[in-house]
């Protein structure tokens, strides 16, 4: 049905600055590429052993700037250097504080009850002055994290075995923090995954923006309009106590799970910036919306986007093999809604950002966020059309 290539010019009334979320501003300044010399100097702040050989752009993050640092040290050959986007994460020191509490908790748990397979937790690397971050002359916030040795991640699901491993990884992540009280961690990103707030932001933005109408834009406008009541489902369940506040990862998409290159087993969950109080359902939804979309979230072929229920079964099987013990009856009841909601929510976030002039997610071209929104909405449609099957998978797995 939607066949247009996204290459027509946009007409916006101006960049939308300020929102009910209160954290969204033009971030171009913040994502300027750094000169290589400069990057080496920054990496050296975190280099306690060896010499920096190279610093290269790494991964496909939409918010922070990430680099892989190569050292000539035999002990630790790589580490990950990141510039935190402080327009999004307004208090980056809270991220570091949370990471330390989280890491310490998991380290103790694993020491007390070792697992019978490899599991790694990324370590915060300190500067020469024993600080967990470094501010450059422009005020940018830099931090370094250990690289999980001999591991790699994937943007799309490889096969059914990987699906089980991705599920296992999220389950293990939740399991290891299920005894850490949620209030021990700070809120690093207020409003994150609160769908009604994204809806409110979207309504504010769309009221102020005159975007050129096209079949794609009309489709998105209608898509959101038809699901306004549904947007409240998880928040209502939270407010009424049907779903408890727990700790969550916040962004357990498929490429945040690291696989051992030799054993092909999941060995770590990375990207800990949004580990904070929330619902595990945000994570379950995010993991499934990214893991069960075989063409990946960056495809421009949104007609071929679909939700693969076999992969869904694999992920849930892996997840429940380690998460069963802390899940309640209500947790199962809301699983289907979580999968549908988080796909919809991400589409809504991309679409709102497109309307706002691409102020939050990094883009490669002006319609990038519209293309991403279409992918998530098509995925949502596919989830909705397979509701019975997905609910049956969840029911049979309890
Ligand atoms: C952002 O930057 P990255 O790629 O780790 C976003 C997630 C989205 C994801 C979609 C803090 O994560 O919520 O699901 O893009 N992170 C934030 O790819 O908004
Ligand atoms: Mg992330």
Q: Can you give keywords for this protein?
A:
about 400 residues; alpha+beta; Phosphorylase Kinase, domain 1; Aminoglycoside 3'-phosphotransferase, Chain: A, domain 2; 2 domains; six-stranded antiparallel beta sheet; three-stranded antiparallel beta sheet; 12 helices; about 40% helix; disordered N terminus; binds 2-acetamido-2-deoxy-1-O-phosphono-alpha-D-glucopyranose; binds magnesium ion
Q: Would you tell me the structural class of the helices and strands?
A: alpha+beta
- The CATH superfamily label of the largest domain reads Aminoglycoside phosphotransferase (APH), C-terminal lobe
CATH fold-level topology of the largest domain: Aminoglycoside 3'-phosphotransferase, Chain: A, domain 2
Please estimate the helix content: 40-55%
| Strand residue percentage | 5-15%
Structural Rg: 21 Å
Provide the CATH architecture of the largest domain.
Answer: Alpha-Beta Complex
Ligand catalogue: 2-acetamido-2-deoxy-1-O-phosphono-alpha-D-glucopyranose, magnesium ion
Poorly predicted segments:
1-32
Q: How would you state the average pLDDT, rounded?
A: 91
Principal-axis shape? globular
- Give the SSE string: HEEEHEEEEHHHHEEEEHHHHHH
Number of helices: 12
- For the secondary structure, the number of strands is 11
Major sheet summary line = 6 strands, antiparallel
């Amino acid at each position: 049905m939607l066949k247009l290539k996204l290459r027509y010019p946009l007409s916006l009334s101006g960049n939308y600055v300020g929102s009910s979320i209160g954290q969204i501003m033009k971030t171009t300044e913040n994502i300027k590429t750094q000169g290589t010399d400069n990057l080496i100097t920054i990496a050296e702040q975190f280099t306690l052993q060896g010499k920096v050989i190279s610093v290269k752009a790494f991964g496909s993050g939409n918010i922070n700037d990430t680099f892989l640092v190569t050292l000539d040290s035999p002990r630790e050959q790589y580490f990950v250097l990141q510039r935190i986007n402080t327009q999004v994460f307004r208090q980056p020191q809270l991220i570091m504080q949370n990471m330390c509490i989280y890491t310490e908790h998991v380290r103790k748990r694993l020491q007390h009850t070792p697992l019978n397979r490899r599991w790694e937790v990324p370590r915060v690397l300190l500067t020469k002055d024993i600080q967990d971050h470094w501010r450059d002359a422009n005020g940018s916030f830099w931090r370094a994290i250990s690289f999980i040795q001999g591991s790699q991640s994937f943007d799309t699901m490889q096969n059914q075995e990987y699906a089980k491993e991705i599920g296992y990884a999220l389950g293990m992540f939740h399991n290891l923090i299920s005894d850490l009280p949620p209030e021990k961690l700070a809120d690093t990103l207020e409003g994150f995954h609160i769908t009604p707030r994204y809806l409110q932001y979207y309504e504010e933005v769309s009221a102020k923006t005159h975007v050129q109408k096209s079949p794609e834009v009309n489709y998105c406008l209608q898509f959101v309009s038809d699901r306004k009541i549904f947007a409240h489902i998880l928040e209502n369940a939270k407010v009424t106590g049907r779903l408890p506040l727990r700790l969550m990862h916040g962004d357990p998409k498929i490429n945040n799970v690291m696989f051992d290159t030799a054993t092909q087993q999941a060995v770590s969950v990375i990207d800990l910036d949004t580990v904070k109080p929330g619902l595990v359902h945000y994570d379950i939804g995010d993991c499934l919306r990214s893991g069960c979309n075989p063409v990946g979230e960056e495809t421009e072929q949104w007609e071929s986007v679909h939700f693969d229920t076999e992969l869904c079964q694999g992920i849930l099987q892996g997840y429940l093999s380690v998460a069963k013990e802390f899940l309640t009856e209500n947790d199962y009841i809301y699983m289907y809604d979580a999968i549908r909601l988080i796909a919809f929510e991400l589409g809504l976030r991309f679409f709102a950002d497109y309307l706002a002039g691409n102020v939050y997610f990094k883009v490669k071209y002006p319609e990038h966020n519209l293309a991403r929104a279409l992918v998530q909405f098509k995925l949502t449609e596919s989830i909705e059309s397979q509701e019975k099957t997905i609910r049956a998978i969840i029911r049979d797995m309890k």
